[in-house]
Amino acid sequence: MIYLDSAATTFQKPDTVERAVSEALRTMSSPGRGGYACAMRAAEKLYECRERAAALFNVSDVERVAVTFNATHGLNIAIRSLVRPGDRVVISGYEHNSVLRPLHAVGADITVADSPVFDYEAAILAFDRLIERNTRCVVINHVSNVFGFELPVYEVSELCRARGVPLIVDASQSAGVLKVDAGELGADFIAMPGHKGLYGPQGTGLLIASDKAAPILYGGSGSDSRNPDMPAYLPDKLEAGTHNMPGVAGLCAGMGFVQSKTPERIAAHETALARSMAEELSKLRGVHVFSAPGFVHQTGVLSFELDAMSSEEAGEKLGEMGFAVRAGLHCSPLAHRSVGTIKRGTVRASVSAFNSKTEIAAFAEAVERIARGV
To answer: Over the stretch 290-343, which tens digit does the pLDDT of each residue have?
Structure first.
């Protein structure tokens, strides 16, 4: 199998991640629940994970790094911490359902900053027009999970600071690949999964949180146990229950892999592969590729359509041929609405540090065969 669905999960992991998970199962119990050896090893690994994240994302206070189940968990914490029914919230036209559904559930007044795909300047202007002082918060994803479009998070953060509006950043597709600088962003919340660009196991994530964070789960924290409420301080107030220590250890190892490779080198590798894929697929009759001119402001995520069949059918055929891709709406109907692909969806191919030029060439050949009906 040639795996091209890393925007969902990086299936291929570094060997260090597997070893770290196995070691945690053998040597760690629950952090903060005892002074014996395996509990202390767990506490030390948990703190190491926070330290590694703080270094990778320029977080000044390690305690701001909370461990979550995934980015969706973190985004729910962020949104429910800031937004109340009727609050005006400005979002991009490329948000995932992990943003749209919590906002809808809260009863927010959602305003979409619409802009054409891959038009970076238009995205800035759209937010500039809509962010007002009565805006409760702004939510923006760093990279579209459908089109690989890098949105102007740093420029939007400047607009938010100038107008005193809180900011939530969804770094699901950028953490480990692009610069995610918490100090420069100044966001109240930055949510990210562990299982994508950080090469950790599924069921892991991180939330870089401010003091505005409020818990959505309640229970044991291993601290302040006489208090009937959750502890008032980070990260304890966001981490109810026993930690997933095999996941934390694997995530810590995954971030170590990213640090050793560097996000810049990983991004260069992924972008080169996706650019090559776009060039090859663009040559094919009956194939429509969504890519940025010069591949500027686009990452290793590429969507395309085939005239001859639906996206789902094309995805199934590619699966039968040994290629793992994602087809349909990718849990992001808003992004498809923005680009005009809401009726048919797209086929999405997304790469990681483990893909090669040979695999991209084989994939382009497979798409050609499907397009020709062979």
So the answer is: 999 999 999 999 999 999 999 999 999 999 999 999 999 999 999 999 999 999
Amino acid at 344: R
Residue in 192, 193, 211 with CA at minimum distance from that of residue 203: 193
Contact 142, 297 (CB under 8 A): no
**C-alpha to C-alpha distance for 2 and 363, rounded to whole angstroms:** 8
Is pLDDT above 80 for 374?
no
Q: Rounded to whole angstroms, how far apart are CA atoms 291 and 301?
A: 9
Domain limits, the chain: 2-10+262-372, 15-261
Distance CA 147, CA 295 (A): 11
φ and ψ at residue 65, rounded to 5 degrees: -90, 105
Q: What's the CA gap between 104 and 107, in Å, rounded? A: 5
Judged on CB neighbours under 10 Å (0-12, 13-18, 19+), 14 is buried
User: Does this model's pTM top 0.90?
Assistant: yes
Distance separating alpha carbons of residues 3 and 72, to the nearest angstrom: 23
Q: What pLDDT, on a 0 to 100 scale, did the predictor assign at position 33?
A: 87
CA separation for the pair 297, 144 (Å, rounded) = 11
Q: What is the DSSP string of 320-355?
A: HTTEE-EEE-TT-HHHHHHHT-TTT-EEEEE--TT-
Would you state the structure tokens that stand for residue 170, as one six-digit string? 């969804």
The mean pLDDT of 60-86, rounded to a whole number, is 98
pLDDT number for residue 30: 94
pLDDT at 32: 87
Domain 15-261 architecture: 3-Layer(aba) Sandwich (3.40)
Going by the DSSP 8-state scheme, the letter that residue 236 receives in this structure is G
Give CATH superfamily name and number for 2-10+262-372. Aspartate Aminotransferase, domain 1 (3.90.1150.10)
Taking all residues of the chain, what is their mean pLDDT, rounded to a whole number?
A: 97
DSSP codes, 260-306: HH-HHHHHHHHHHHHHHHHHHHHTSTTEEEE--GGGTTB-SEEEEEE
